[in-house]
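Hi Y.,

Following your request, here is the sequence exactly as I used it, all 212 residues.
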Amino acid sequence: MRVVLIGAGGHARVVLDAARSQGLDVAAAIDMDVSKQGHQIDGVPIVGDERELPALRSTGINAAILGVGSIDVGPRRAELFARIAQAGFQLPVVRHASSVVAPTASIGDGTVVFANVVVNPGTRIGRNVILNTAALVDHDCLVGDHVHISPGARLAGGVRIGEGSHIGIGATVIQGLRIGERVLIAAGAVVVRDVDDGSRIAGVPGRPMGQP
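Below is the corresponding structure, written out as tokens. Let me know if you'd prefer a different format.
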């Protein structure tokens, strides 16, 4: 499968590495930053911005992989996913060869699974999710669309993560909890109770930011 990489920053390099490890042919990249256009990202030519997508489709590239990351909650990645899908591109799962995904787990379109990630039995991962380096998603979790599980984060069994939430690097969520939509869990936090939609949680144990 020949694909176009959407984005050409640091996160995109990791997506590219994962894609190559599973044998995807990344033929071109696009980026909104005009200073990158005409250059390369790890050997892949950066041919322009989203206006180049129709021309790329005419060359037989009918799939795209999203290389745009996030460090906070917000609609940017969800809006990009929708635009690329509406442009007629397939959005395959990108899964690094070193990741471990149980046969009974499911992963939605456009999700990226990086090196050393573990997804255990019965878990359902939504669309356009980032499972970043060495993240652990234990059994029977439910991860909504457009979520980012950062490097080294840990979800215990039966955790539910709402759409558009961000679980920070090294954070831990204990078993059976519900994390709402558009929630930010800060780096290193330990979440021990359910979290409402739109909350921002930090600390050990996790509590709303600004709360002593």
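The first helix runs from residue 10 to 21.

Thanks again,
Q.
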